[in-house]
């Protein structure tokens, strides 16, 4: 006749795991004290550690009360440096007015 598997309560497993966590305590000794197989106790400890790890790494959404500022792109500029005997002439022109910049350069260079 096959032997029936024993089942243990969660509180009993927690007690055995807590005893194994004590300093200077061997898992084999705790298992023997409770008439358990040491491999079974090791399995309980692994499962317990895995459950705790799952709870620790769970995603927790956080709502911020401050709006996140959007990075505004700097307006594009056309920068022209013209060497001159008295120094360098620097012209900065908004890129959206490129046609006007072109007309300015045409008049300047005539």
Automatic annotation (TrEMBL):
Pfam families tied to this protein: HTH_Tnp_1
InterPro entries for the chain: Homeodomain-like_sf, Transposase_8
GO molecular function: DNA binding; transposase activity
GO BP field: DNA transposition
NCBIfam families: IS66_ISRel24_TnpA
The family this protein is said to belong to: Belongs to the transposase 8 family.
Identification of the protein by name: Transposase
Originating species: Pseudomonas helleri
Classification lineage: Bacteria, Pseudomonadati, Pseudomonadota, Gammaproteobacteria, Pseudomonadales
